[in-house]
Fold:
Amino acid sequence: MTESAPVLRHPMSKYIREDRQPWIYCPGCSIGIVTNMVARAIDKLGLDFNKVVVVSGIGCSGRSSGYFKTGTYHTTHGRAIAFAEGVKIANPDLEVIVISGDGDIAAIGGNHLIHACRRNIDITVICINNFNYGMTGGQFGPTTEHERYSQTSPRPIGNIEHPFNLVKLAASSGSTFVARWTAVQARRATRSIERAIKKKGFSFVEIIGACPTAYGRMNRLGDGLKMHEHLLEVAEIKNGLPPHEAELEYESKIICGEFVDIEKPEYTAVLRAAHTKFKESI
Amino acid sequence: MPERIMFTMGDIACAEGALSAGCRYFGGYPITPATEIAEWMSLRMPEVGGAYVQYEDEIASITSVIGASWTGTKAMTATSGPGVSLMLEAIGLAVMTETPLVLVNIMRGGPSTGQPTKGQQGDIMQAKWGSHGDYQIIALTPASVQEMFDQTVQAFNLAEKYRTPVFVLADETVGHMRERLVIPDEKDLELTYRKLPSGPPEEYLPFKPDDDLVPPMALLGSEYQFYATGLTHDERGYPSDKEHVQIELITRLNDKILKNADDIIDLERFMLDDADIAVIAYGTPSRSARRAIKDARAEGIKVGMLRLKTIWPFPDDTIASLATEVKHLIVAEQNLGQAYYMVKASAAPTPVHLMTKPAGMPQLPHEILDKIRKVDSI
Ligand SMILES: Cc1ncc(C[n+]2csc(CCOP(=O)(O)OP(=O)(O)O)c2C)c(N)n1
Ligand code: SF4
Ligand SMILES: [Mg+2]
Structure:
């Protein structure tokens, strides 16, 4: 009688569509790490997984929704937040999480981001910022730093534009919870994602990640391991810092932490209260 | 609620139709001449426990409607040409993920900003072909305030039955005209609701169709987990770049509309039985045509009308057989000829005459009468 070797299963695999493995991500990419963070946060909170909805847009980061074994939806490019708002307003009992890329959320979908912050709908947005459009092969985007190289900002000139600082953008647009971590700070990032999910209001968590295949290659930043080592080196934790001081300079300093955690009336709660008020008035 | 009678405008009748159909989510962005739908919804939704949500643009509006629909809520948006132009990509997403929703287009003058307060029927082909790729759409073309109500209810029923976006395509004149509206008693309305999955959740295949080619739809928050994507996907919902998966999916998405065309298509035959000339019209021009036909009949001209209450899927079989019964067809539409090309293709070799008017005032009865006389004298 032969005994088969015991199969080691990842503790988070219960949340993942294992029949969709292997992941599409390149070796050394941060997106898998972020997927794990989200699974762990859901696990830690003990959420009823059937009531969790994961939504994404288009991009490598946008593929993340499809790996979660719950109700998941892959929208058009940039529209994950708009879809998520419709879900949350129509059924406020659901826990709605958006995971998508910097291009998806801050370029083509930037308008939806700022308005969802302003509206204060209780959804959690996790933006994987890898400083470029990974999926289309590495063009510059709204978070690409000045003079960085990409497929559409080639040498010798590099990017002639300037990046958004997403923490500042979300905070000034009214987001009630704003945090930033790098992909290597898995424990801290996971805890912030837990808080973001628990928060009754719009939450924004930026995870600075590595795209070794495109951005890393074009800017000679090394392989995935090297890029993640760099993130660890330059990450500076400053919890509670006013968001407008949360600077991000890839080379030298990435300010990480939780910068906003405020209370404001939440959209679906106000809507429910309005319904009750209406019923009482008749 | 018991039967109610109102004297109101088409836009409001449309909103009331949606509410009667059970619509509880409206996502929109104001635009003339559809704004009254949004305004009425903002007033009425709180009364029925629903949501009126005003978004930053039409892209967010329709995408949020798709999201709301996946929770099992009947959902709609309403706009006009410029808004539809922004929604086109999302229409494709709704088609591809088989999402029931209703999209109202109160058609105004175009292209571009055009004439916001004037009617036109310039978006017939946009409704059919606006999003990229091969797909079918359902589009209803009401011609009165009562039909704005009735056909909005019908639009929701078709959207739910076939799991697809459905257009209510009304010209501005229909949207803004005021007429008597009878809102039937709730219990007299026949309402359809999408098929939900049954059976063990582990075995559920979210995009495996039943015999009617429509798969039961799992809802977000239910025990049936799924991945819905605009990418070409197999029965499990998983993305695939295989040729056969693309062919199977696209064929089914088209067939579920085309093979059920008889159930969807809604036509009115008016004085056609002995006709030598058939007018084809929809929306406001069909109202002028009705009058013109009566006047022409009084002059002894044998003319009738096939009124399209639905324009997509196109009733090509009916028009082909009509073309064998009459000597001439006249298409009267408020554009430079859109349904005309479809009629021509179906009616050949019977001659088809076009009566166009790409501007605010629809063809008047006497203008259509003149055209009928001319065609009669050929
Ligand atoms: C409307 C539209 N425009 C362009 C594209 C092509 N496209 C696909 S992914 C992508 C960028 C994704 O970048 P990001 O959101 O940063 O995700 P990443 O791949 O870097 O994770 C683009 C431009 C598209 N799919 N749809
Ligand atoms: S291209 Fe970049 S972002 Fe996309 S999977 Fe590869 S490493 Fe990750
Ligand atoms: Mg990116």
Chain A has a mean pLDDT of 97. Chain A has nine helices and nine strands. The pocket of thiamine diphosphate (ligand 1) is lined by residues A 58-61, 77, 100-104, 128, 130, 132-136, 141 (CB under 6 Å). The first helix of chain A runs from residue 31 to 45.
